[in-house]
Amino acid sequence: MNIRKRIFEIIEKSQGNDIASSIFDVFIIALILLNISAVIAASFSDFAGAHAVGLHRFEVFSIGIFTIEYILRMWTARNKYPEVKYPYLKYIFSASAIIDLLAILPFFLPFLIPVDLRFLRVIRLLRIVRIFKLSRYNKAMDLMIRVLKNEREKIVMTIFMTAIMLILSASVMYHIENAVQPEQFSNIPETIWWAVATLTTVGYGDVYPVTVAGKILGGIIAILGIGLVALPAGIISSGFVGAISNKKTVCPHCGKEIE
Predict the structure, then answer these.
(1) What whole-number distance in Å separates Cα of residue 169 and Cα of residue 218?
(2) Separation of alpha carbons 20 and 238, rounded Å
(3) How confident is the model over 212-228, as pLDDT tens digits?
(4) In this structure, are 15 and 118 located in the same domain?
(5) CA 73, CA 158: separation in Å to the nearest integer?
(6) CA dist., res. 22 & res. 6, Å (int)
(7) What is the percent of the chain where pLDDT is above 90?
(8) Torsions phi, psi for 40 (to 5 deg)
(9) What is the pLDDT of residues 28-45, one digit of tens each?
(10) SS3 76
(11) Measured between alpha carbons, how far is 189 from 112 in angstroms, rounded to an integer?
């Protein structure tokens, strides 16, 4: 038996007729869920202080498992991408591999480069990325990723339009309101906070225009924001409808869609 092929079959999502693969899936899913629970529990200072040793040992154990999984997936990339010239590079730069790497990177990074404690705390927050590893074993998350990938050009265009609208509205509002509210609208970057709150129709009320021109502009931006926020939702919704209606199945071995 080809060992590489057998390991590939085990670590890939089980199709229901492979006991070893099913056990591996259940083990990895349970480990991911326990890791997310540990990250949440560690946010309680009393719990983290009382169980610091146990949490650290569990973290080391988890990192060991996830690292072995990452290496095995890289090793078996040839089976996943048989038609690709450099399957290892194909895997390394895939979305799932990046998630796998981010899941283990916070543990190894302090050993590779010196970092201060503040940066280390931020890096360790990346452990929460492990929840995205569940996408391999969940059809809904897999569908969501496929939809976002298929609609990425439209979503990027919408984000670009939103960024332009934010900068333009913040710039105009700054010139209108700065003279009467120099503290609230002190510069354009500060005014972008008002633009974000208005465009997303949240309207916290901590910063708002008081001049007539400012109120008119604020009303226009708020109305435009309703349509602008609805655009990504419409794009993603249509993508979901299209993906569900197509009912395409993804081959577990080559990753290609089957009609």
Answers:
(1) 9
(2) 38
(3) 998 999 888 888 888 77
(4) yes
(5) 35
(6) 13
(7) 11
(8) -65, -45
(9) 888 888 888 888 888 888
(10) coil
(11) 36
pLDDT reading at 160 higher than 70: yes
What stretch of H or E contains 108?
A: helix 95-112
Mean pLDDT over 9-28 rounds to 84
Q: Which domain holds residue 207?
A: 153-249
Distance CA 125, CA 65 (A): 19
Task: Report residue 66 as tokens.
Answer: 């996830």
**The one-letter amino acid at 15:** Q
169-206 burial: b if 16+ Cβ within 10 Å, else e: bbebbbebbbeebeebbeebeebbebbbbbbeeeeeee
Q: Look up the pTM and report it.
A: 0.61
**In terms of domains, do 90 and 161 share one?**
no
Q: Which two tokens stand for residue 112?
A: 């590779």
Separation of alpha carbons 56 and 186, rounded Å:
46
Q: Are residues 62 and 170 in the same domain?
A: no
Q: Is residue 223 part of a domain?
A: yes
Q: Are residues 123 and 12 in the same domain?
A: yes
Residues 105, 37 share a domain? yes
The arithmetic mean of pLDDT across residues 61-69, rounded, is 91
Using only C-alpha atoms, the chain has a radius of gyration, in whole angstroms, of 24
Question: Looking up tokens 């083990």, which residue turns up?
Answer: 27
Give the CA count within 13 Å in the CB-facing half-sphere of 149: 10
Largest Cα–Cα distance of the chain, in whole Å? 79
Distance between CA atoms of residues 98 and 80, nearest Å: 16
